[in-house]
Amino acid sequence: MPVITEIEDLKRLYRRRVPRMFYDYTESGSWSEQTFRENSWDFDRIRLRQRIAVDMANRTTKTKMIGEDVSMPVALAPVGLTGMQSADGEIKAARAAETFGVPFTLSTMSICSIEDVAEHTTRPFWFQVYTLKDDDFMRRLFDRARAAKCSALVITVDLQVLGQRHKDIVNGLSAPPKLTTTSIANMMTKVPWGLEMLRTKRRFFGNIVGHAKGVSDPSSLASWTAEAFDPSLDWNRIAKFKEMWGGKVILKGVLDVEDAKKAAEVGADAIVVSNHGGRQLDGALSSIRMLEPILQAVGDKVEVHLDSGIRSGQDVLKAMAMGARGTWIGRAYVYGLGAMGEAGVTRALEVIHKELDTTMALCGHRDVEEVDRDILLVPKGFSGDWA
Ligand SMILES: Cc1cc2nc3c(=O)[nH]c(=O)nc-3n(C[C@H](O)[C@H](O)[C@H](O)COP(=O)(O)O)c2cc1C
After folding, report:
1. Residue 45 half-sphere exposure, CB side, CA atoms within 13 Å?
2. What are the residue numbers of the active site?
């Protein structure tokens, strides 16, 4: 078992073990990748206040997210194609999350289907949908998610059109991977990955292939997005999806104060302050910069979570201390999954938990629900004085 001390160790292993096409798919942002980079850099700009001689015994990182008990305030974010990072990847990640006691979110663009994940887990998971044109398909997805006992619907609201990631075009990203000289040459260097993939039957978009009609190339994320996604989405339609679902709804991808107010008005149970990990609007501000203004506007009306850029327990603590009620991680767990399968996701969660717990203690706190702005040193004008 390799020694893993931090998320970066998992990323190094992941890069060695998974075909280039899928590593690049994870490790890139849209266009110049400015927002992708700044998501993490801006966490680094916030510093913590060291406190001494306070009782640090009996600490807890337990809390609730949308009323559900969690062992720490970290949910696994929806990530498309997870089953290409490691065979049956969504099942592995969901099982690791269940054992650890944190929520798992299944993407519509997953390889394992809703039913596959439900069959292999006992804790209800969250299901993420994109806003698609086809109401019948949406209705069927909701029915399937209800039948699988999903406890919340996550509606991703920042992807009506797809931000361009150059590497995905160059690599011809698809699931399963298209066999070209370059992709074959690269896959031949990833033997354990390939053998596992050959053993599983789950190599296609499990929620789409066989369920959606009229998709010209179901292996291509780009063509499905262009054909099926609803570019004319508005708040009425979001409210309609909420009604169609009838249960808890989380709106993911809110990055603006005005939008946050609208999200609270439509009655979302939670919002995720997110720029999709820097994969959509390049040039948008980092999520952590937008957290405070959004909390000031709607923090008393709706539960506010944050994702984009979290790579450590220190980052989780910073977001919680600023006032978030939960955080989500994308890449941090995908690195673990690609590196070591289910054990790698568990390791990613363990690393983040230990960092969160120890850092909280060194800041003089014993309960993650009690950390507040007082432990943070935030540069003046951090959220920006933009005109
Ligand atoms: C490889 C990859 C695929 C993703 N696929 C989806 C998706 O299918 N649905 C979705 O709502 N968000 C998707 N996201 C965004 C994540 O849910 C999350 O917002 C983002 O990863 C958070 O940033 P982080 O990776 O820095 O933690 C994806 C992110 C990555 C890295």
Report:
1. 17
2. 276
